[in-house]
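Our example copied in:
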Amino acid sequence: MGLKEKTQVFAVKKALEFMDKDPVTNLPKLLDWMDAFDVKGTLKGELEAVRGIVQNPDNNWYKLIMSLWQDIDPGVRNTLFENFIINASISGYQKQCENKEKYNCNVPWAILMDPTSACNLKCTGCWAGEYGNHMNLTYEELDEIVNQGTELGTYVYLYTGGEPLVRKKDLIRLCEAHPDCVFSSFTNGTLIDEEFASEMLRVKNFIPAISIEGFEEATDSRRGKGTYQKIMKAMKILKEKKLPFGISCCYTSANAEVIGSEEYFDYMIELGAKFAWFFTYMPVGKGAVTELMATAGQREMMYRKIREYRQTKPLFTADFWNDGEYVGGCVAGGRSYCHINANGDIEPCAFIHYSDSNIREKTLLEAYQSGLFMGYHDNQPWNGNMLRPCPVLDNPGMLTDVVEKAGAKSTDYQNLESAKEFSDKCVDAAANWEPVAERLWKEKCAGCSMGCNR
């Protein structure tokens, strides 16, 4: 770590100590301190924006920031802040950049991995429910993935599945083995109990993102009767123990209006959620229910609602299909993240079940340099309109070209589905979304002064 990074790390730690003493009083003072050090005005715009938030206690972002000091255990909060800011975003990002240049390939900020294909639920439209318990990564394999990842600069690890909490003990063991990393899990929430919450409080570097489909009727209709009440119980336990958690929402043709409603957002905030990840339904696998794909109108509604609520609700949100403008399009293929399934196959995305590398045969770096990942590296962004970021849902045919050129194979071990078959299911949705996305992009560009000739 160079002098600049060491100085940044020292500053972050001191800032957290200062905030802990009295966040309401000391946050404005912290901004004044940053002003004094920003002699060249590099951060002037950002500091002014934050000051505008701090000076208005009714601002939703001010409320969210203060809730992190009011609602979250101090040890958990500071561990996560240090791991996110220092390890993942300062020293880790520097290592990622160095390795990207050195090896001429993508190196991700985060890795998604499936500890198991097993799940205690069988949700409509979910491929994992078809796989059963015949695929698992051993603890040693999961540990080695993290070891290789941190060596390249990746300090954020998210579990998917299957239901990751089927492997509770191993997940906690990984938190203990890698206290400098942030671990999170997409989970149905039904296996979160007092004992596991106490373990989360002990290790301090694990955050659940609980999958919920709306209110009780919508959630239970897709995930099974009684699931919603189990989720409510899990959230209550987490809130009482002052543990941070978020929600993961898949919006479909059946629930988009509920998930995009103000009533739903307000209730999730009331329950204690601090963040929300939004996904649109993808027809993965031959048995996928294509009727669940959101319409273009519903996707536009979510685009507008989430942006509206970002100005009014104390909840951090990310929409992984509609936020391409903020991250330069598709973030998969190792550009910002990749996925490793429970069989060890290294995939560009959790929704792209094709691979030409396996962690049992190749290192992470070798996978990032493989034909499939380099296909992503060389072709991103897939579209100049960042509201059409996906090589499947928004630009069908592009994934097919990359997969076929790389000789990648389907990793769906129940019913092999070619990339063309998968892409073909998205042709109509892409055609319907294109004019909407172009209109929205023009609206955005009309108010932009960047001069990008769009």
